[in-house]
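As a warm-up, study this chain.
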Amino acid sequence: MRTLTIAVYVAVWLVLAVATSVVVLLGSSRDVTAFSHDATMRPTFSGDVEIHTGPVLPDVRLPSHSPLGLDVTLGKTDAQTLGELMQRYAVLAGAPEGEEAKLRETAEDLVLDAVLRGAAIAALPILVWAAIGARRRQELLARLTPRRGAVAVVLVGTVGLALWQPWARDSADGDVAAEQSWLPLRAFLGDEVSLPAELRDVEVRGDVTTAQTRRLIESAISTYGNSKVFYSAAAARAKDLVLRKPGAGETVALVVSDRHDNIGTDQVARAVADAAGATAVLDAGDDTSTGSSWEAFSLDSLNATFDDIEDRWGVAGNHDNGTFVSRYLDDRGWRMLDGKTVDGPGGSTLLGVPDPRASGLGNWRDETGLSFDEVADRLADAACSAPKRIATLLVHDANLGRPALERGCVDLVVGGHLHLQVGPTKVVGSNGKAGWSYTTGTTGGAAYAFALGSKPRREAEVSLVTYADGRPVGIQPVRLETNGDLHVDPYVPLTY
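Now compare it with the structure written out below.
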């Protein structure tokens, strides 16, 4: 009987938990940053992702390939013009991995929260029922007169009705969106527009019949196609590159820097990393143009691209203004360096700090008001006083590591910032020990601080650093030209 009672309790709890979780899930929402907008996401069981873009552009619907759907309402963004916004959408759609990961992560969080809350809420009546006990329940039931029972039913019904408020569901003003039908994108644009095959399941809704709006959408689709083809083709070619592979006991780290929101190059960088056998990533900063939360799409793409690589380190650049970038990546498993020595690639030692000019680092640890040169000197002090020689000093601007290199306290200073490759250059320190300085080019192909586009504005570059016996022993750069060609530079041994 005890086993049967427990089984009944568990069965009732499961039924209540499932029902409650569904109710909680359908009433939940989450404010996030998506598609370079502030956005609100709500779960549905429509099996579709519906994106509500506002009063001017059409809403968009596409299948989620899951019983669970999402209703996404876009809010504010920093785009200055409608055309700029449409072109940004197009490029984001061309490299959707980061945004897909954001939607998936948000949906999973909403489901998990609903399940936990539903399970807790469902347990309450069972716990109360068990706490009262059979004898007390019989006593209460014996005292329950028909009149009291009727009053209880009326009270429960009134409370439920007040919470439900069915009279508030329908509005006499109507629903503009509900009165408009979903159209396949192909039917909306007409046969004269060449539509990529992967957009065949996309539908739009909205009173968007003006020639100007149609031209914007046509232009965005053209940008989407160009971006998708350019970067996908480059990534495919990168898989076949002949690169130096790590030997026994060697570890290869991919260096990226100055992406400046150009998520298109991420798939190329990953293809290069895989072709070279890289198992670590060093991020030298400037993943954004301003460090603002609307640029989370760039960080989402970076994280999704290298999500299965465990060893990931980074620093914020001068354009990653404030603390948003460092906090966002740190929360997603990146080890953001803050002036303390840590274990680096291949069992090496790694030291780094965010750029002091705009990254929220106006201090060295607890001191305030330090300049770039003062931070560089403090960084050299930290390197030279470390228990073990620093193998890699990761900074956004290699000049920040110059004093440490000149004092002979590091093997390699690696950074970006200049948007072009400089070095590797050998430097013999004042203590007679040699080290190297290396500046990698812009991974995003950035000519200016914002590089999102259908192709890079200048040659895009990643670099491969090989480690052996706990120190860097070689560098090999790989460049993506604006015409889509890939160039592999010779492997440069680092000798000491």
